[in-house]
Amino acid sequence: MSKRGLITDDNIDKVLFDRLQVLDLSMCHVSDACLFKLSNSRHNYLRKVDLNSAKDSNESITSAGLTSLSRACPNLQILYLRRCINITDSGVISISENCPFLVELNIGGCPRITDATLISLGQNCRYLRSFNFSKSEVTDCGVLSLVSGTCATCLKEIHMNGCANLTDESVEAVIQFCPQISILLFHGCPHITEHARNALEELMRAESSAVKQITWTVY
Length: 219
Description:
Blueprint: E1 22-24, H1 32-38, E2 48-50, H2 63-72, E3 78-80, H3 89-98, E4 104-106, H4 115-124, E5 130-132, H5 140-147, E6 157-159, H6 168-177, E7 183-186, H7 194-205, E8 213-216
Parallel strand pairs: 1-2, 2-3, 3-4, 4-5, 5-6, 6-7, 7-8
Family: Belongs to the AMN1 family.
Organism: Pomacea canaliculata (Golden apple snail)
Protein name: Protein AMN1 homolog
């Protein structure tokens, strides 16, 4: 049903069962109402929730829904929220505080996300390996708080494309604090310069480097 986009707020109950581990709603048009129903009971086995908006932006999922989800799914490890444009810091902070085993998080294309989210993730999510916060309002301060936080040695993949507030300091912070980083993407960041590229080239020449993919746009 989910792959055909047939799950809705009205029939979500049909796919919810006690030992559900993966819930993929990326092809479905759902709202907070769906997440409220999910939170009516505790889902200790649920590990992955995919709410990526596959086509257009999703305006119907907000931080209220995320807060409910976080309280119902304490063992959540993977959460995809790409282009859920009405999500704010409060919802993702609830996830970081209530889902300590989070490994992958995609909030790319969520323009209302700020440094507060990254600060909270850095404080609470020590197992975070992959994080996409592209096209957000994050600044260097948020990136520094994230990469110098509890997840510093776990982070392997960071996507920060289209973040207009970032500078070379963010790239340098990732290099300094994240020894396992293997994928770092920062296209469309107009304040990141040639200086960052030079630092990255040194990283890639290092024998201990784990880098697999680094792509960027230099202005």
